[in-house]
Amino acid sequence: MDNTTLAGTRILLVEDDASISMMMEEFMETLGCVVVAAPSRLAAAAKQAAEGDFDMATLDINLAGELSYPVADILRSRAIPFLFVTGYGTLGVPDHLRDAPLLAKPFPMRQLAAILGTIKASRIAQNSLPSHKNG
């Protein structure tokens, strides 16, 4: 995947491990993405999810012992795509969120790029569908 595919994509990066957050931010910048915020705790992540201006989000499932599912619910309510990034797999993911893409830690940049690219392509395809209005 070339860097132009994701160029300018604004991302909310939710991760509680500083070293992983820095690595992901570096990966995303290399891919041409812009990390608009990188909260590491649930309350700050929920606030950003509700009020922030971004195209998609990456969510660590476990944020210092709190689960990020409420953040995922906020993103869904705003129709903002996201992916889970976790070392735990799908264990414990609620049924209504199991369709979200999941990236298992550790991961190479190309795997992150592939998932972000798929999410962006899907979003573009959804937005290009003709709208059908009654009347």
Major sheet size, sense and barrel closure = 5 strands, parallel
Structural class: alpha/beta
Cα radius of gyration in angstroms: 15 Å
Give the H and E element order: EHEHEEEHEEH
CATH hierarchy class name:
Alpha Beta
Beta fraction: 15-25%
Count of all domains: 1
Mean pLDDT: 91
Question: What is the percent of helical residues?
Answer: 25-40%
Number of β-strand runs: 7
Query: Based on the structure given, which CATH architecture is correct?
Result: 3-Layer(aba) Sandwich
SS element count, helices:
4
Describe the global form: globular
The strand order across the widest sheet is 2-1-3-6-7
Terminal residue distance: 43 Å
CATH superfamily: Response regulator
Kindly identify the CATH topology.
Rossmann fold
Question: Low-confidence stretches at least 5 residues in length (pLDDT < 50)?
Answer: none
What can you see in these coordinates?
- By secondary structure, the protein is α/β, with parallel strands linked by helices.
- It has 4 helices and 7 strands, in the order βαβαβββαββα.
- It is globular.
- The longest helix is centred in the last third of the chain and has 19 residues, at 109-127.
- The chain has helices at residues 18-30, 42-51, 69-77, 109-127; strands spanning 10-14, 34-37, 56-60, 62-63, 66-67, 82-86, 102-104.
- The protein starts with 9 loop residues before the first strand and ends in an 8-residue tail after the last helix.
- α2 packs parallel to α3 (69-77).
- The chain has a single domain, classed as Rossmann fold (3-Layer(aba) Sandwich), CATH 3.40.50.
